[in-house]
Write a structure and sequence with these properties.
3 domains; OB fold (Dihydrolipoamide Acetyltransferase, E2P); 10 helices; 8-stranded mixed beta sheet; globular
Length: 449
């Protein structure tokens, strides 16, 4: 009886259906309907008429794989990457870039539809060149029959796609990547789990950070790798977090240019290669400019910045206000921010190192007051601290997010506490993927005009 049930389940899952794709949803899959039921299809384009094989069937939805493109969408293009079909690094290369922007705007408005009638939605800011924009990448490693597999994971898998060239990175970046892979393979260094390769603005510095399974290694071979790949700096960490080696100049540099009425003057940054920074320098500048426009600061105002990182927003904020209280958990990021404040002769920043929730509670206990709060949380959002932020009763809140679903959840919580979205802006920091960076200005409904 069991085998019979398995047979019928397999038959059901392998049935084929025609579907027309309506839009792209968070995660990058296309969505369509068969007899009113929603189905998700990877690497499909709005306007595609497809024959799909049903691979998952749930009560409320299903998933399918493309068997045949019956009528391609007018927005469908041939991917430039030969590994696109398997690699999970991109989701939208089969769609022309203009259509990607339109699909992302539609997706954002659908997720945030609760506020489309009450708040201003600005058009997505796109890139001139939607390739070769990334300055940092994390690459997984595994040896198989003496050969190294190195690259991104397949979509929804831990299988490594061993690509020769990634079009999200520059030619110089790909050359460095190939040199690292060749060295690991030639020396049969099979204890590397993964590594990060990052470069500074204008590719002035390249630093690699390795994560190894075996902490009892000979560091000298990594020093040879540093010379072989012509890296400025190199870091080796154990899986327990133990620092095994740090050699050379392990920092990256970039800058923000003066922008009239928004960024007071040019700002320089030098950050530890292991600190988090935006992976797209060009769009990061535009993102900072929009944050400053939303913050709309005066010289007598005080600002609370949560999840402040290396000071990417902090420096520009401080040049416009009385004081910034910057809260960040990462030790290296706080040290970077302090260094950058000195580098730029900016001295009205108070750095608080520690858990954001705990530090916020301490500020509340001290009866701290802030005119503006800026938060740039991780993908998980800021749900646990929203009531605490509201208790400061700021005039404005600026929320930067890379995750639309958690942003939507948090905005509902802010609304329960008297803060409602006034304006949304969106930035395509991640062309060829479904990712969107969002900036939201919230107004305080309790504040008297």
């Amino acid at each position: 009886m069991k085998n019979k049930r398995q047979f019928f389940r397999k038959e059901k899952e392998s049935r084929k259906e025609e579907i027309e794709i309506e839009s792209i949803v968070w995660g990058g899959k296309g969505i369509g309907r068969i007899k009113g039921k929603v189905y998700f299809v990877q690497r499909s384009v709005p306007g595609d008429r497809l024959l799909i094989k049903i691979v998952k069937e749930k009560k409320d939805y299903g998933e399918g794989e493309i068997e045949k493109i019956i009528f391609p969408s007018k927005e469908r293009v041939s991917p430039v990457c030969k590994d696109f079909r398997n690699c999970g690094g991109c989701q939208l290369q089969m769609m022309n870039y203009r259509a990607q922007g339109e699909a992302k705007e539609k997706m954002a408005k659908e997720i945030l539809r609760r506020w489309t009638n009450s708040a201003k939605f600005n058009k997505l800011i796109s890139m001139e060149n939607p390739f070769e924009y990334r300055h940092s990448g994390d690459f997984h490693c595994r040896f198989s029959n003496g050969k190294i597999l190195c690259g991104f994971y397949e979509k929804e898998s831990h299988k490594i796609v061993d690509f020769e060239n990634c079009h999200l990175f520059s030619k110089e970046f790909n050359q460095k990547l190939k040199k690292i892979k060749r060295f690991l393979e030639s020396c049969q260094i099979d204890f590397v789990n993964s590594f990060n390769l990052s470069c500074g603005e204008n590719e002035k510095e390249f630093v690699a950070s390795f994560y190894v399974k075996d902490e009892k290694i000979e560091a000298e071979q990594f020093l040879k790798l540093k010379d072989e790949a012509n890296l400025n700096g190199l870091v080796v960490n154990g899986i327990s977090g133990k620092k095994i080696l740090k050699d050379g100049e392990c920092f990256l540099s970039y800058s923000l240019k003066r922008k009239e009425d928004v960024i007071e003057r040019d700002i320089k940054f030098k950050i530890d290669a292991e600190s988090f920074s935006q992976s797209n320098f060009e769009m990061n500048s535009k993102l900072v400019e929009e944050v400053m426009r939303f913050a709309n600061l005066s010289s007598y105002e005080n600002v609370l910045e949560l999840f402040s990182g290396i000071g990417n927003f902090t420096m520009s904020l401080a040049l416009k206000c009385k004081e910034v209280v910057a809260v960040e958990k990462s030790d290296t990021a706080v040290e970077d921010s302090k260094f950058n404040s000195t580098l730029n002769s900016i001295y009205n920043i108070r750095h608080l190192k520690g858990d954001v929730k705990e530090q916020t509670e301490k500020l509340i206990s001290a009866s701290a007051k802030f005119d503006c709060v800026l938060l740039d949380p991780p993908r998980s959002g800021a749900f646990e601290i929203i009531e605490k932020i509201a208790s400061f009763n700021p005039k404005r809140i600026v929320y930067v997010s890379c995750n639309l679903p958690t942003l939507e959840r948090d905005l509902r919580k802010f609304g329960e506490n008297g803060f409602v979205p006034q304006e949304f802006s969106f930035f395509d920091l991640f062309p060829q993927t479904y990712g969107i960076e969002s900036v939201v200005l919230l107004r305080n409904e309790n504040e008297k005009n």
